[in-house]
Amino acid sequence: MFSISRNILAGAVLILTMVPLSHAQNVPFVKKHLYSETANPTADIAAALKQARAEHKRVILDFGGDWCGDCQVLDIYMHQSPNAELLAKHFIVVHVDIGQMDHNVAVAEKYKVPIKKGVPALAVLDAHGNLLYSQANKEFENMRNMRSEDVTAFLNKWKAHPAPTPKA
């Protein structure tokens, strides 16, 4: 009997994770592994900054967890056009796992991201690690009720400006 109940519960969870979310209803929802519990965000951010300096890009810190449906929707929107192209041209993205709001808390605090207010939560750094933007008021916490265009506007606002061309 227990195994039947467990199978029914597992099936219900599977069905619920495939149910489209509000504005994301035209997008198939497949849960992805985005946030590594064993990653070293300090090292990941340092590597991203090094790459950002070399490529004249900015770094987006994406705080969240694989369990977070809104984080999954943000990832879907980030992979849609024109967002995917904007990200590739202007940003390096670092996913920072927050566990159950109790993992990598010091990293979130360093970048002034109040993860207790909800995730996904974003910060934007310039190529030298200077904090340009820190989500303070749950701006992306309700991604399921936002649109891909909201992400586009954010990326356009914070994209890196092209490197100056040397004068001849």
Automatic annotation (TrEMBL):
<dbReference type="Pfam" id="PF13899">
    <property type="entry name" value="Thioredoxin_7"/>
</dbReference>
<dbReference type="InterPro" id="IPR013766">
    <property type="entry name" value="Thioredoxin_domain"/>
</dbReference>
<dbReference type="GO" id="GO:0045454">
    <property type="term" value="P:cell redox homeostasis"/>
</dbReference>
<feature type="domain" description="Thioredoxin">
    <location>
        <begin position="21"/>
        <end position="160"/>
    </location>
</feature>
<dbReference type="InterPro" id="IPR036249">
    <property type="entry name" value="Thioredoxin-like_sf"/>
</dbReference>
<keyword id="KW-0732">Signal</keyword>
<protein>
    <submittedName>
        <fullName>Thioredoxin-like protein</fullName>
    </submittedName>
</protein>
<dbReference type="GO" id="GO:0015035">
    <property type="term" value="F:protein-disulfide reductase activity"/>
</dbReference>
<feature type="signal peptide">
    <location>
        <begin position="1"/>
        <end position="24"/>
    </location>
</feature>
